[in-house]
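Collaborator request, handled under Task 6.
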Amino acid sequence: MQYKKLKSQLDCNNDFLKNKLHEVAKAYYKLGNSCAQYCVYQAAEHFINIAINYFRELSNEDCIAKCYDSLAAIASCSVDYDSAVRYTQLSEEIKLRLHGANYPGLGINKLELAKVNNILSWLAEEEENLKEAIRLFNLDSNHYKSFLISAETILASNLVRKGELKEAIEFHNKILGRLVCEYGECHSQVIRCYINIAAIQIKMREFNSAKELLQRAYKLEEKNKDRSPLQLASINKKLGSIWCRTGKYEEGLAHYKISYQCRLKVYGENHPEVAAVLLELADAYMRLKRYDKARSQLESAIKIYSSYFGDTHTALATCYHSLGNINFMEKNYEAAKQCYYKCLAIDLAFYHEEHTELTETYRGLGEVFMKEGNLEEAKRNLQKALNIKSKVLGSEHKEVKKIEDMIRSIEEKLPHKSS
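C-alpha cells returned to the collaborator:
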C-alpha cells in the first residue's frame, strides 16, 4: 500500500517524494552490496532488484546500470557466468546509449567480462577486455582509481599464470610506486600490493625476500588506522605457506591458525573465506601425515561450501582433489580415484577440457592408474596434464619435463605393438 501511495504521488511530480524514493532505492542498493560482501548472494540479488524497480520509477538509468554491474559481480561470485555476462551487457547497453563509447564507466563492464574470460580460460578475449578496461579507466583515473588498480593487478596475475614471474613482480612494483605516491606507505592497498609481490616471490622460492616483505606488511598493518583482520589473515596465510614450503609444517600450521581466527572474527564459522583457510590447514596436516586431522578440515570446508553454493562449485572441486591426495597417500587408490573423478566432474562443468585447473587432477589420476598397473589409462591422463602444462609454461619448464619423464617411464613398460 505504501509503495502504491508513493507511486501515485510520484506521478504528480512531487520532487520531495522523488528525493525520498531515491534515498530508499540507494539504501536497498547498499544493502544488496553489503550482503554480497559477506557472500549472502540470494539476499544481495533480491535487494538490488528492489533497488532497480525503484530506480525505474524514477527513470534513473545511470543507477540502473550500476545495479546491473553489482548483479553481474554477484552472478560471477555465484559461478553463474551466463548471468554475469547478461547483466554486464545490459549495463553496457545503457552506458553506451547515455554516454558513448569513451565513457570511463564502461571499463567496469570490460573488467567483469575479463574476469569471466579468465575463469573460462578465454585468454585472448580476457587480455583484450583488460586492455580496454585500463584505457577507459585512464580517461578518469582519479574517479576509477581502485578499478584501474584491480585491472592492472589481474594483468599481473596473468603474467604469473604464464610463468612470467619476474615480469609480474615488475608490474606489481609499478602499481606499488603509484600507490605509495598517492596514499603513502601505510595504506591498505599498498599493504595488499606487498602481499601480492610476496606471493609471487613464494612461487619463485625466494622465501627470505617474501618473508621480509610480509613482515614489513605486518608492521604497516599494525600502524594502519583502518587495520583489517582480513589483511592480517592474508599475511599469516602467506607466512604459513612459506614455512610449509620450507618443510617447517608446525610453524606453518601456527600461522594458518592465526589466519583462521582472524577470518572467524569477521565472518563467523560458516563462511567460504573461513573454508579457504581450512583447506590450508588440511594441507599442513597432510604434510605432517596427520591424515585424520586433514580429512576433518576438508569435510568441514565441504559442508561450508555446499551450504553456500550447492553441490557443484569450483571450491568443492579443490576439496575433493585434496581428499584424493590424502587417499593416495594412504594407498587407498580406489577412494583416491573416486575423489579425483568428483573433482574433474565439477571442474568440467565450469571449464573447458584444456583449462589449467584440470592439470593436477589429470596428473593425480595418472599416478593412481600407475599404482594400479593400468598403464594405458595412466599414460592417457598424464598426456592430458602434459598438453595443458606445456601450453601454459612452455616445453622447457621443469614441471613439463617431470610429466614427460613419467610418460616415458610408462612407455618403457608398455608392450610394444608390432607394426
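The cover message to the collaborator said: "DSSP finds 20 helices and no strands in the chain. The radius of gyration is 24 Å. Please let us know whether this matches your experimental observations."
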